[in-house]
Amino acid sequence: MSLLEPLMMSGKEVLPLVEGGKGISATNGMSAGAWAAAGGVGTVSCVNADSYDDAGNIIPQIYHGKTRIERHVELIDYAIDGGVTQVQEAHEMAGGNGRIHINVLWEMGGAEAILEGVLTKAKGLVHGVTCGAGMPYKLSEIAAKHEVFYHPIISSARAFGILWKRAYKKYGNWLGSVVYEDPWLAGGHNGLTNAEDPREPQDPYPRVAELRTMMNKFGLNHVPIIMAGGVWYLRDWKNWLNNPEIGPVAFQYGTRPLLTQESPIPQIWKDALTKLSEGDILLHRFSPTGFYSSAVRNKFLRSLESRSGRQVAFQSKQSEEFSVQIQAGKKKYYVHPEDKPKADSWIADGYCEAMKTPDDTLVFATVAECKEIRQDQKDCMGCLSQCKFSNWSQNADKNYSTGRGADPRSFCIQKTLMDISHGGPLENNLMFAGHAAFNLGQDPFFSNGFVPTVKELVDRILIGD
User: Fold this and answer.
1) How many angstroms separate the Cα of 446 from the Cα of each of 435, 441, 456?
2) Which end of the chain is more exposed for a tag (fewer CB within 10 A), N or C?
């Protein structure tokens, strides 16, 4: 017996189950189309989605432009072509069932141009746009222009209140839902603020109840809230159903659908997910977006932790405070006397190159690490509207620069996500996952190596398991 009743979502009654819109080829037309065909809401990631040649092979996204601006234009073109390709596939697979949404990150490079391009070229095939990672004020205007519903992702009632008052109330009739993404439990980028402690998770219930109270004050009693992050068994959420404090509610699944037959992630990634233990997901701040994000604490993340640990304050000229000289590579710097033994030890261990950060510190790395960091920064194509790692900004008025130095404590997120989603080594790449991912190794549904279809997973979720 199903625990859920159909709910009006993006203009149609569907199962209130939503496929989380994971970025860069981890959610595509096949997975979204299968989710919609099962009666729910499928979500195509329009973050550098794949497109295909005439033989059905993935077209490598290779950049030929000599400047960042030229490569940025190429990136937008790739994103639009891939987004349209995947939306068309999702539409065909859905067979008229469910709803098809697209997902974009507001802080990705060219977000507005990509949204406009996909919605124009895939007119009538997209029913909703899900958008987070920032404050997407123009989302409502763009969605209303193309007559599709918009579904902002927020992590607090306050954030939604700001969005509604500044922009969304003008296009309130196209607000399809509000996605509450738990900033402590969701995979990918999270909406933690400086006022919230990453080490002290808060119960989502009072936060969502506060959001519903605010929405009701705006006359949005009928608009669903989508609970995202940490959702696994529906039986654990029974007290949210038919609850006036929560109102109409749907549930979003991001990590669990990764282990389905239609999931496009490589098999080695699927296999690794079943071997995770509780606590293997790290909530960290290494992302070049500046946001917190959650990913598997593999070799890649541990190396970033270690790199930031090899860090000291410095000055280029000697002063009373920075009185002791060190030499890293061919350059000399002045550091605090108490930091010299640490720096000497790192240099002796092979971390003999020092790279400056925007915070007037040095991080120590190997010659090979420095070479890779500098090459990645040189190859930047502007995949983010602003990037800590490369100092790119898509704002022409600021000369396409953030105004701060590139930060070697971060990494090229485009490079690593493209690599892992297309079969690259798991340990050497960013591997996004929600904090409940360890359930993939404990959930009896996946025992003995069973990998369900999306339809089988949806049917399982509906009974509470």
Assistant:
1) 18, 7, 11
2) N
Cβ partners under 8 Å of residue 204, min gap 6: 180, 182, 185, 227, 229, 230
Task: Tell me which residue of 285, 278, 299 sits closest to 442, measured CA to CA.
Answer: 278
Which candidate, 186, 431, 420, places its Cα nearest to that of 296? 431
**Distance separating alpha carbons of residues 389 and 375, to the nearest angstrom:** 12
Enumerate residues 6+ apart whose C-beta is below 8 A from 165. none
- Is residue 217 classed as helix, strand or coil in its secondary structure? helix
From first to last of its 465 residues, what are the pLDDT tens digits of the chain? Answer: 688 999 999 999 999 999 998 888 889 999 999 999 999 999 999 998 999 999 999 999 999 999 999 999 999 999 999 999 999 999 999 999 999 999 999 999 999 999 999 999 999 999 999 998 878 889 999 999 999 999 999 999 999 999 999 999 999 999 999 999 999 999 988 888 888 888 899 999 999 999 999 999 999 999 999 999 999 999 999 999 999 999 999 999 999 999 999 999 999 999 999 999 999 999 999 999 999 999 999 999 999 999 999 999 999 999 999 999 999 988 999 999 999 999 999 999 999 999 999 999 999 999 999 999 999 999 999 999 999 999 999 988 888 999 999 999 999 999 999 999 999 999 999 999 999 999 999 999 999 889 999 999 999 999 999
Cβ atoms 46, 79 nearer than 8 A: yes
SS3 233: coil
Strand locations in 329-440 (E): 331-335, 353-356, 361-365
Q: In angstroms, rounded to a whole number, what is the distance separating the alpha carbons of residues 130 and 152?
A: 6
* Torsion sign over Cα 145, 151, 154, 156: positive
Provide the token pair at 270.
Answer: 């699927």
> Rounded to an integer, what distance in angstroms lies between the CA atom of residue 328 and that of residue 321?
20
Does the domain at residues 7-275+439-462 carry the CATH identifier 3.20.20.70?
Answer: yes
**454, 273 Cβ separation under 8 angstroms:** no
Asked if 440 and 451 count as a contact pair (C-beta separation under 8 A), the reply is no
CA 160 to chain centre: 19
Domain boundaries, the chain: 7-275+439-462, 299-421
